[in-house]
Design a protein that fits this description.
The complex is a heterodimer of chains A (433) and B (216). Helices cover 41% and strands 11% of the residues of chain A. Chain A has 433 residues and is an alpha/beta fold. Chain A has a four-stranded parallel beta sheet with strand order 3-2-1-4, sandwiched between helices. The radius of gyration of chain A is 22 Å and the shape is globular. Chain B is of the alpha+beta class. Chain B is 42% helix and 9% strand. Chain B contains eight helices and five strands. Chain B has a five-stranded mixed beta sheet, sandwiched between helices. Classes of the chains: A alpha/beta (433), B alpha+beta (216). Chains A and B meet through helix 5, helix 7, strand 3, strand 5 and strand 6 of A and helix 2, helix 5, helix 7 and helix 8 of B.
């Protein structure tokens, strides 16, 4: 399948991040089109396109927008989730650094469609490189009359606020993000009510991922038929894939949904010299791992679900034969333990216990019984917490056991580092000296 | 180094910026996270006095501000020094060599996780995924990207910073200092958007293939 650069098409133009650069490639033509149409027709068009949320869950974007009650007399808000922190996910930050106006144009169109007069772009605080580019794009758009009062004579007013987070993975969860944006600890809310009914400041709110919103100008400009020529019936469109790990050329590869991992891997130059693929993860540490047996599956929401995993963020991490699965899983659990917000007991306590037991395995001191304990612990977290962080924490171990249980058995007497020399996994040489 | 005065009093100019931030939101309290970044921009850490100033401006209690501040890992409660150094040790970066980078950097700085260097000029932190896995192993200086580091290049970088030499982010502008970055985060803007290159070969990997016609 061919690569199809759309969002990434002009990234080699060093002026793309400026208003003039973006406009020279047809930027903001979609906005003019949108402002001349009826907001409901934009929602309908996005629904028809079949665009699904690119943040991980894959919820249909147009449907999400349509849940916002209209003529309810309340202010509506658009909140862009730019808190990209999922281990392995590295596509929203590059989009914001290279093509921030695609996001800003998408924000204006989306706000117009859902009748929001104030939009917020919540960017994780650890990435000033993305924050300053988005802020600059917003500033230029404001100076050009694309943000503010009576945008291009349409009568539509919009304020856009760029907001920095302060270091908390959980704020990528949409309701935790709302609490954080309201100036509280970022802890998830119970749903329902869903944000479309009671979101930011208890008002109807749409929360969309950066890549989702960056798709909008292209869909409005080129139409449903064009968009649906890419991908499958259930997963239309293209995706900014970010391939990382033990491949020759890690990087950004934009392709239609439905491309296979084998094809992506080929584009990325294959595995590094002398390496064999051991396992890979389609979209962030929160989705189950796959092996070389799954390389020919199409990267779509439905095919990944069928294989027992998820497309997630669509940012495959690839690991070769030098990597200890025990060590990889332990490290991910240490992350979930660190990032659990502490609100729900199963997640707060469970991530603590799982991590402790896994660390025993990493050091070669696990027991057969404790392999059972881990299974039980994961079962007691999954589905028993407010948000998906608990479910995510319960994912890596069972997935690893499906394919690599022998490594955990070996870890009852031999440490991960004795099983697999850590230095062999490094991507640079000279660490042995 | 910290420019703050002896009593840790938040300056009037910072107070004005706090009010400007609060005015950006329909509900003033939304400005709390940026305001705490502003405290770090002025004081190199989040001080009790800084939190009290936030509380005053937002008309909430200091206890509420503390409860929020302590939830977020980017706020520090002793002076960070001139530069914040982050080394990603999440699975992908860590296993691809970030672990070795962290070890060597910790040794060089004589620092441990989430603490100052022996000379007080640096702060070291094992950081989680920085959304740059294509550039692993990743390090940050004052949260600016330092991509594809090795133990040797990381230590060389710190040597330069220690000497006060100019250093550039691999995808961004020149390194300033921790407090300057905190000011950028607080105000969610600075005048460096046009400085430095944000797009590198790895971000163009797929585009290059598509343009070359070497497609399957």
């Amino acid at each position: 399948m061919k690569l199809t650069p759309v969002i990434t098409q002009h990234w080699d133009d060093p002026t793309l991040y400026t208003l003039d650069g973006y406009k020279s490639h047809g930027g903001y033509e979609a906005l003019a089109k949108a402002l001349n149409s009826d907001p409901d027709s934009i929602i309908a068009l996005v629904k028809d396109s079949g665009l699904r949320g690119r943040g991980g869950a894959g919820f249909p974007t147009g449907l999400k927008w349509s849940f916002v009650p209209q003529n309810d007399g309340k202010p509506h808000y658009l909140v862009v989730n730019a808190d990209e922190s999922e281990p392995g996910a590295c596509k929203d930050i590059p989009i914001m650094m290279a093509n921030p106006h695609a996001l800003v144009e998408g924000v204006i169109i989306t706000s117009f469609a859902i009748r929001a007069n104030h939009a917020f772009i919540y960017i994780r605080g650890e990435v000033p490189a993305a924050i300053r580019k988005v802020a600059y794009a917003v500033k230029q758009a404001r100076e050009a009359g694309l943000i503010g009062k009576n945008i291009q004579g349409s009568g539509f007013d919009l304020e856009v606020t760029v907001h920095s987070g302060a270091g908390a993975y959980i704020c990528g969860e949409e309701t935790a993000l709302l609490d954080s944006l309201e100036g509280f600890r970022g802890q998830p809310r119970l749903k329902p009510p869903f944000p479309a009914i009671a979101g930011l400041y208890s008002s109807p709110t749409v929360i969309n991922n950066v890549e989702t919103i960056a798709n909008i100008p292209y869909i409005i400009d080129r139409g449903v038929e064009w968009f649906r020529q890419f991908g499958t019936e259930k997963s239309p469109g293209f995706k900014v894939f970010a391939v990382s790990g033990h491949v020759q050329r890690p990087g950004i590869y934009e392709a239609p949904l439905g491309i296979t991992m084998r094809e992506l891997l080929d584009y990325a130059g294959g595995m590094r010299p002398g390496a064999e693929l051991k396992f890979w993860i389609p979209g962030g540490s929160s989705v189950p791992m796959l092996t070389a047996d799954h390389l020919d599956l199409p990267l779509t929401y439905e095919a990944m679900a069928e294989a027992g995993t998820m497309l997630g963020t669509g940012t495959p991490m690839v690991f070769d034969q030098t990597v200890s699965v025990v060590k990889a899983v332990t490290r991910w659990l240490e992350f979930y333990k660190h990032e659990s917000c502490g609100k729900c007991t199963p997640c707060r306590e469970g991530t603590y216990w799982i991590t402790g037991v896994l660390e025993k395995f990493e050091h070669g001191h696990g027991t057969e019984n404790e392999m059972e304990t881990l299974t039980t612990l994961c079962g007691q977290i999954a589905g028993r917490s407010f948000c998906a962080l608990g479910d995510a924490a319960a994912t890596p171990y069972p997935a690893a056991m499906k394919y690599f249980s022998h490594e955990f058995t070996a870890a009852t007497h031999t440490s991960a580092d004795e099983q697999f020399d850590p230095i062999a996994s490094y991507v640079f040489s000279g660490a042995r000296a | 180094m910290s420019q703050r005065n002896e009593q840790n009093v938040i300056s009037e100019s910072t107070r004005l910026k706090m009010r400007e931030l609060a005015g950006r939101y329909p509900n003033r309290r939304s400005a709390l996270l940026p305001m705490l970044h502003l405290v770090q921009a002025e004081q190199d850490e989040v001080t009790t006095e800084g939190m009290a100033a936030c509380a005053e401006e937002l008309d909430i209690t200091s206890a509420e501000v503390t409860a929020v501040a302590t939830f977020y890992t980017m706020y520090k409660y002793s002076p960070v020094g001139r530069h914040h150094i982050g080394v990603c040790i999440n699975t992908l970066c860590g296993l691809l060599g970030g672990d070795a980078v962290y070890e060597r950097v910790a040794e060089r700085l004589d620092a441990s996780h989430n603490g100052p260097s022996a000379d007080g000029n640096f702060w070291l932190e094992r950081i989680e995924c920085q959304a740059a896995c294509t550039h692993a192993p990743v390090m940050t200086v004052d949260w600016e990207f330092m991509d594809d580091v090795t133990p040797q290049s990381a230590v060389a970088l710190i040597d330069k910073l220690a000497l006060g030499e100019q250093v550039w982010s691999t995808r961004g502008p020149m390194i300033r200092d921790f407090q300057a970055t905190e000011h950028t985060l607080a105000m969610a803007e600075d005048d460096l958007a046009t400085v430095g290159n944000c797009v590198d070969e790895k971000m163009l990997a797929g585009l290059k293939i598509a343009k070359s016609g070497a497609q399957q």
